[in-house]
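User: Fold this; tokens only.

Assistant: Input:
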Amino acid sequence: MGGYFSKPEVEPPSLLLNKEWRAVPQGNKAEYLQFVRGFEPFKPRNDERNEDQCIRILLHGPIGHGKSSFINTVDSILQGEMTGRALADACGGKTFTKKYKTYKIKKGEDGTFYPFVFNDIMGLEKDQGVCEEDIKLAMMGHVKDGYTFNPHSTLSKDDPYYNTNPSLSDKVHVLVCVVCADTVHLLDDDVMKKMRKVRLDARDMGIPQMAILTKIDEACPEVKADLRNVYKSKYVKEKMELLSESLGIPLNCIFPVKNYHSEIAPNDDLEMLILMALKQMINFGKNFVNDCKCT
């Protein structure tokens, strides 16, 4: 019971904007799935070898921010069942991914695969983790599958895992930075500088770049309650703007997502966000390959 000096009840400020701050493309999950499943191997323009081309997508970023989990989530969506091929560590701490590995996603029972692949890489840390030079070599196609990263030295030209003459297929066609929404403001300055260096190296190679902001549900309770609030969330908008300012990646190249984590059943809202990001990766990669002058 309130008295004369009782403070009036004040509602907490809303975490949601009145309308979406990003216009979401029209379409539903089925349409995005149709695009991905309908994307066929293609032959780049001006390619005298007339070979089918696969899009290579390299994920990089700080340790424990969801690179491997993103691969598993895409794989789960396209397989129609939960998968866990890219091993991830729920405990955090040191990087769990040690080797350079290519993940192909099975398309049908006849042994065919989708014409895009993901490359997982050791995470970035302040004094440990993958060397920026190794990421550069990977983007150039010099790192062979199975190479074990050494935080203290980069891949040498006389190493058996060094690819001396990379083809267009060996090179990276899209670079994707993966960062957690709930901890982007806590990232160490040294790690940010490393990511910025990788971004500048990719720029010099003309490689298109994107970022995915993971764990959006942990950054905003309104998004946790309903993923469809993502583009109304003040918190998510602020985290995306911070990432854009820190790395220089345009806002329209940053996609907020939630990876499968505790779920054991499909979630259409989660999958829609993942598929929107995946479609952009495919489009960026195909455009980059077509613009390359193949020799």
